[in-house]
């Protein structure tokens, strides 16, 4: 009930403002009292939990002239925010049908109706309203964002690309990376339908939109591998390093496979060593290099390499791989992993959070009695890693 009263507050304010404005006009004294009595009738329906009757009454009373647009919009938007989309649509629809709206009022009302449709999942109707808005050049940025949302939900990637390009032209927003992903979606679709030429073309367009698109490069490499073009695949995979070195872990397996198919594993090893020099401490590279040595039967070399790297760049993954190499023959060498375990765990504990909020997941070094993130009391507790 309190919620309903809160909902009515803006309407009441608008009606009060209206009443004030009208009372200044002596000629309109009549409609002022009419407005108030109808407004209280509407309020009465709300108090009796009859929201639909209340809407009808309020729509009637607010249907006076273009001065009453604001209360309409306020009422409709509040319904939408409360998740009562059907009612929001009724209010906004009623508004749109009024003949007395000026252009900007009608555009605002159509925009709100479009947002109602979005909320209700009626994407077709929302789409046509937002396309209309684009045509009229009103609320362009909101309309473009909503259309972008619609086309992504519908997986209509061509339309999504067109809208993202328009959004970039209109607002300067960076959309290249998004567009590249849309082209990748198209490429994957075509590939699944065995339309390799088209898939290749879309991958090229993805890279033309955003040369840093790792996804496009990985697709290109996989496609080349499938066609047995390992040299081409290697060129693509190695490109990832300059696109975004955070994705190095994604290329190691296919890269090793390509070199193996060409019978040039040695080349893979030299590339690993060079890449490691460019990205010192990169755990995936360290692991791949150690695994390579192990595959060549060089257990001791692999172990020494891991120990040397782990000293400088401790990682759980590296330690695990070292222990998985098994017990060394030389008993003195057993002591090396032992001291490394101590080093790695000490490092891990230093990086770990000591306290975690069991409500929102906030983590930190100190015991806050009130969680700084979710503001709840007594939810931040000591955190111990249990396995
Ligand atoms: Zn919290």
TrEMBL record:
A Pfam short name: TPR_7
Record-listed Fe cation binding positions: 357, 360, 371, 374
Domain of life per record: Bacteria
GO molecular function: iron ion binding
Gene3D superfamilies: Tetratricopeptide repeat domain (1.25.40.10)
Keyword annotations: Cell inner membrane, Cell membrane, Iron, Membrane, Metal-binding, Repeat, TPR repeat, Transmembrane, Transmembrane helix
GO biological process: lipopolysaccharide metabolic process; regulation of lipid biosynthetic process
Subcellular location: Cell inner membrane
Residue ranges annotated as Cytoplasmic topological domain: 21-387
SUPFAM superfamilies assigned to the protein according to its UniProt record, in alphabetical order: TPR-like (SSF48452)
Membrane topology: Single-pass membrane protein
GO cellular component labels: cytoplasmic side of plasma membrane
Primary location recorded for the protein, binned into one broad class: membrane
Function: Modulates cellular lipopolysaccharide (LPS) levels by regulating LpxC, which is involved in lipid A biosynthesis. May act by modulating the proteolytic activity of FtsH towards LpxC. May also coordinate assembly of proteins involved in LPS synthesis at the plasma membrane.
Annotated family: Belongs to the LapB family.
HAMAP family documented for this protein: LPS_assembly_LapB
Protein name: Lipopolysaccharide assembly protein B
Name of the coding gene: lapB
């Amino acid at each position: 009930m309190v919620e309903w009263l809160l909902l009515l507050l803006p309407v009441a304010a608008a009606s009060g403002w209206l009443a004030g404005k009208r009372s200044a006009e002596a000629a309109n004294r009549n409609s002022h009292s009419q407005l108030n009595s109808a407004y209280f009738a509407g309020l009465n329906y709300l108090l009796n939990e009859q929201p639909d009757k209340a809407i009808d009454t309020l729509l009637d009373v607010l249907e006076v002239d273009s001065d009453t647009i604001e209360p309409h919009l306020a009422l409709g938007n509040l319904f939408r925010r409360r998740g009562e989309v059907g009612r929001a649509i009724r209010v906004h629809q009623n508004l749109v049908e009024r003949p007395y709206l000026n252009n900007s009022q009608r555009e605002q009302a159509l925009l709100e109706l479009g947002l109602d449709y979005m909320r209700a999942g009626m994407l077709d109707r929302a789409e046509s309203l937002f396309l209309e808005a684009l045509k009229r050049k009103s609320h362009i940025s909101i309309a473009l964002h909503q259309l972008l949302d619609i086309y992504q939900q519908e997986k209509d990637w061509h339309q999504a690309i067109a809208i993202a390009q328009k959004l970039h032209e209109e607002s300067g927003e960076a959309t290249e990376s998004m567009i590249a992903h849309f082209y990748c979606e198209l490429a994957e679709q075509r590939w699944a339908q065995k339309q390799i030429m088209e898939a290749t073309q879309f991958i090229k367009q993805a890279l033309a939109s955003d040369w840093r698109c790792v996804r496009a490069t990985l697709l290109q490499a996989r496609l080349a591998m499938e066609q047995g073009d390992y040299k081409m695949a290697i060129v693509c995979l190695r490109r990832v390093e300059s696109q975004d070195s955070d994705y190095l872990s994604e290329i190691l397996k296919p890269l090793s496979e390509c070199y193996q198919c060409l019978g040039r594993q040695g080349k893979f090893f030299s590339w690993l060593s060079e890449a490691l020099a460019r990205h010192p401490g990169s755990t995936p590279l360290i692991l791949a290099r150690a695994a390579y040595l192990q595959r060549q039967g060089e257990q001791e070399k692999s172990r020494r390499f891991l120990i040397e790297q782990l000293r400088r760049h401790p990682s759980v993954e590296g330690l695990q791989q070292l222990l998985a190499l098994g017990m060394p023959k030389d008993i003195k060498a057993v002591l090396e992993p032992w001291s490394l375990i101590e080093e790695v765990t000490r490092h891990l504990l230093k990086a770990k959070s000591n306290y975690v909020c069991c409500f929102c997941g906030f983590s930190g070094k100190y015991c806050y009695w009130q969680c700084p993130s979710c503001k709840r009391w007594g939810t931040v507790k000591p955190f111990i890693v249990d396995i």
